[in-house]
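Thread: flavin-adenine dinucleotide complex, take 2
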Amino acid sequence: MEPASTRPDMTTVAISGGGPAGMMLGLLLARAGVDVTVLEKHADFFNDFRGDTLHPSTRAVLDELGLSEEVERIPHRKVRKVTVGRDDTNIVVDLSALPLAHPYIAMVPQWDFLDMLARKARGYPGFRLIMGAESTDLLSHEGAVRGLRYTDGDGEHELRAVLTVSADGRRSALRERAGLRPRVLGSPMDVLWLRVPRADEQVEGLNGRTGPGTMAFAIDRGDYWQIAYVIRKGGFDQLRTEPVEKLREQLRGLLPFLGERVQAIESWDDVALLDVRLERLDRWYRPGYLCIGDAAHAMTPVGGVGINLAVQDAIATANLLAVPLLEAQQDPRRFERTIRTELLARVQRRRWFPDAGTQRVQQFMQRELFGDIVGTANGQGTPAARRMVEAALRTPTGAKVATAIYSRLMSRIMMRGLRPEHVTSPERPLRA
Ligand SMILES: Cc1cc2nc3c(=O)[nH]c(=O)nc-3n(C[C@H](O)[C@H](O)[C@H](O)COP(=O)(O)OP(=O)(O)OC[C@H]3O[C@@H](n4cnc5c(N)ncnc54)[C@H](O)[C@@H]3O)c2cc1C
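Output below.
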């Protein structure tokens, strides 16, 4: 908890949420010389699991911020091979062959990633991070948002700000206070998350396998396999009425290399349910207030892109707003004035194509590739797109073509991202 003596009651930018979007925005604005306060409701970064994948687009941004060596010091696994399909018909993509500076998915534990951003941000004089602080409401005056209200172990506080940003994820309370409601795009699945020990073995990288009515992904995390088992939305209560052996059997069938190590799943207590949503705001802002990351567009785990898009939103926001915010910071009447709403609209316009476009791809994959598993296929049976891929994989030429198309799509949409952002916001000297 922040000691009362140092707790600020005004800042230039108040950011609700210390996830990938909030921490990256906090770092970039502080780096530009903007006074910024990030509020995170948890006491540390070890909160709900939300994925660990850093794609080449994010990895390249860390180079731009001089964080290359630091991220390499975090122990992590690099996924260079992606295998998807069934045991007899697989597409194998060698990521290391893609024309990218960092041709792999870096499986960096999210808390280490956020800690690293916080350490770097603390080097800039204008940065403040308050952990264990939950924002509860917006401060509004004359039709504009002028800060927020938050609670910590010490009670309720007000924080005035020129701009208030919701980077507080897909269940943002502030967004609701702002009267912004997301459009539900359909989230037909949930994910069960579990671990199985990994022995020294031939199989590596990311392995996605489908079977009749089921699908699972295994990600090589060094000494264990991180397993995502896809189920229909809301199906967990029914599933857990069955003995856990049924799940073990399914996993053994889909991912035979796990073998008897599935016995490590002793009971349903070893299985975490992750609620999946796909949603988007039509409008991301109000005067004095902006939503980014999952608060603006909740992503599903498909393609592991959510963290990366949240980071990209933060970069675009800093690129477009750092200079106007620095100017506003000099104005003694800044808390009575409102940053031009057109600037906030520009952030949404800049990010609409990559964020909404990637959601479209996620929807397509949900429907056309595994719709039969999550119950969204038109009609019954295997969806047409997957049938075509499976048929193609049965001939050597077809397999070559399918792999080439898949590698291209993977490289373009997932690894590099649609319209990747680069850091152009200014940099001020570090704290002496
Ligand atoms: C099951 C599942 C698995 C996923 N796996 C991956 C993956 O492997 N790779 C990937 O890239 N993406 C993955 N995603 C998507 C990814 O988790 C999100 O897209 C990404 O975390 C969004 O980042 P964010 O910063 O916008 O929001 P979040 O990561 O949700 O961060 C929001 C932060 O705000 C805090 N907060 C919330 N409310 C308040 C409040 N009132 N006051 C203060 N703080 C608050 C929260 O504690 C949290 O720290 C997955 C999603 C799901 C559902």
